[in-house]
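Q: Could you write out the predicted structure for this multi-component system? I'm mainly interested in how the pieces pack against one another.
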Amino acid sequence: MTQIKSDLPQGTLDLLILKTVAFGPVHGYAIAQRLQQVSRDVVQVPQGSLYPALHRLENRGLLAAEWRENETGREAKFYRLTRTGKKQLETETANWERLSEAVHLVLGMSEGGGQ
Amino acid sequence: MNWWQALRRRKKNEELLEKELRFHLDQYADDLISRGHTPADARRLARLALGGHEQVKEGCRDVRPMRWLEDLFRDFCHALRTLQQNPGFAAIALLTLALGTGATTVMFTVVDNVLLRPLPYPEVNIQEQTQTATQYGNLWAFAYPNFIDVKSESRTLDMAAWRGIGGTFAGSGDPEYIRGLQASSELFSILEVPFSQGRAFRPAVDQPGAPAAMIISDSLWRRRYASDSAAIGSVAVFEGTPYTIVGITSPGFRFDGTDVEVFTSLDQSTDTRLKNRQAHPGIRVWARLRPGAAMADAQTELEVIGRRLAAQYPNSNAERTFLVQSLVPSVGTVGSTLWPLLGAVVLVLLIACANIASLLLARAVSHERELAMRIALGAKRSRLVRQCLTESGVLAILGGALGVGLATLGIQPFVALWPDNLPRAEEIHLDWRVLLFALAASLLSGVIFGLAPVMRTGAHALEQSIRTGARSIAGGTRRLHSAFVVSEIALAVVLLFAAGALGSTLLRNSLLDPGLNIRNVLVARTALSPAIRTNPARLRASWQNVLDRARRVPGVEGAALVDTVPMRAGNNRLGYWTTPEQPPLNQMPLALATTATPDYLKVMGIPLQRGRFFDDQDRLENEPVVVIDEVLAQRAFAGTDPVGKRLWIQAEPWMTVGPPKVVGVVGHVRHWGLADDDQSDMRAQIYYPFAQIPDSMLSFFSTLMSVGVRTNIPPLDTVDSMRRDAVGTTGDEVLYEVRTMEQLAGESLARQRFLVLLFTIFAGMALLLACGGIYGVLAYLTNQRVPEIGVRMALGASAGQVIRMVLRQSMGMVLAGITLGTVAAIAAGQLLERFVAGVQATEPLTFVAILPLMVGAALFASFLPARRASRTDPLRALRQD
């Protein structure tokens, strides 16, 4: 199993968190779980990075948070996307797609650099 | 989120953060349990997965926007707690700092208010300027007619004129000599002179020919009118002329740094010489720029007016124009005292900083394990640095606040202690500039002494400091500690040197021969009856009467008249030459000219070296004669006998009657005072007989004369009878500014004495602080070496050897400090020489006196720690830790 911790490119963790939160209010533990499941265990966010990242996004106004009970009856801090967060997610996603497409193109280049 | 909310929410935030992480752990543990782990195992695994609980929290805290403020607040509380825990250290550090910043603040306040601050009113000064310079320069006082013309034509300036006056005031009570101003009516509006009652002069009312108006000061009103408001409108007699009092100025008003007790109107002046453009008494002209006008505009305009006046009045105004300059306060030479004092207190402050730095350093070293532990636990180094700096910052601010408190108490005593009249003293006050200075000074000192322990936290391998424990040999800090002690000693040496140089200068100056016998001489300015001012024959007779009456006063051996008294303010400078052709004006040497009556030499005890002094035959109708001093004899007649030679003097009456004959040479008198005369560029002296002053100038000279008497009883005992009997019976003649020559000689050294006193105090403080520093550092260093000393003693070292070892260590620092300090003192001495007249900063004698003092004090300070070290019990020392 490959573990990507701080090897995630700069800003990528924020993008992944925003995407995860975009599906509806969710608490920190669930975000970590979901990232791990969806990425088939490739992305394992160390909790030492997850919570500072969540708090940073909250302070920047991209996420909002409220406390409520989860399905097991425990009080948890649920994060949701704000309007600016949504906008940020869109631009970041577009940026990422452009970048990965470009990277893909470069890597797909046949030897000799022909057509 | 503002800062206040940030601080208030801190606790709540912490709780929520803990709750969030706790939820994460619980949830994870539940998942693990459901996958078959035992509860205890699940809990352990969950905690492992989360990583360092505190580090995660710290990471979350770091992204809070007001994080730095929270830290600052926490550091601040921590600093206060640390100070509380160690009240001894806090008291010593705060007291040291408070004294340092307090003294510096006092000096800065005085320097700022007296020397740096512009005048409270934005005025310009205008002078007449000639194209060619004479020996007096090329700037001249205004002629009154020129002032009237320029004032009426200028569109850029509101102009006012004034001149100093003095005279006998005979309003109510005994006649009294007072000083004042003759001012044009505009002066009051331009300077915004405050009035407590009545009014300023009004150009429409107080015109020539109208009843003469007078304004008096609050102090005169209190003294002579017992604060009776009936003074307004009453008639006072000043210089024999009746005036109607129209106004009283507010208490505390001073004009250009001097007390003015009476104002008369320049516009109403009956002095006919004022109307003369060519030969006139001279007035000062101040002006305020009109709104929108710049100084350059005013200058251009005045030059145009000057050219027109030059064409219209070629006799007086040819090649003459006007110069506009910003008005600077006249503060005389106080800078030569104030700047060195400011320098000295800054040195004391630096020593205080070094002292606190070494105290803090010692404490930081004993906290070293704590700091290393915190770094090991993940604290960032920058965070620790910030904490250290906050701690010293808190100390600095508290010390600074105490210092400002001390300064508010200290300024008035300082001004009161000032030996003579401190100019602009009434303007001195604490304000935001001073507070800003005090804040900057204390913060800067905070950084200076706070940096030392901070440098430590970086310099050391941390696991080593954890491992070595308390049994460290303190090798690394020894150098830093020594650096502080060395710099403290060096600074103290600089101050000791300065104090020593000033002290020996004072001593040398006070042993100087003033050139006369200052014992048993009383001098007093004398104002004759204003009624006889215009009658030369009666003036001569009155002066003769003053002399005759003074000689009859019991205790008086001899009496003489003189215009300029040695070591008292006031002088008359005249150009001279020794061959018939006159040198160019700007190359003409100047000499101090004094007119006196025949007994002057006897009264003052000035030695006659050649020829004779004046006698009763040196009258107006006989050949004009002068007596010169040895300095002029040397300069003008080097090597030859001046007696019988001619001396050309550029002044009436000699320009018309011909050059006078030199009839005698007398010893040089230190006219400029014991401290300053040797440095003065004008030392040559000429004496001429009072009896040969022509009638036309007698009225003017009569306002300048003083009577001097030699007594055979203590001179102050004759004051009452002199005041009563030496003046005439008309009731309008007074003696004023009564002084003994001993007082004048003492006053000429008062400034230096004051400087020496304060420098001695500062040097003493510096020595004390430096000794405290040596003691503290050595006590700390030897304490660190207790285990080592224990080993040495167990191996057979004697108590004497241990003491010598410690003393050797301290002597190394002391000698380095003295060497460094001596070099710095020589540089500082150059500065001092520029400020204080006659100081020779690098005198071997000073060094010889200071060296043992410094070494002795340092030895004394090191002896206590050394002796304690020598009493180390080897067994206990080895068992320690």
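A: Regarding packing and overall arrangement: Chain B is about 55% helix and 15% strand.
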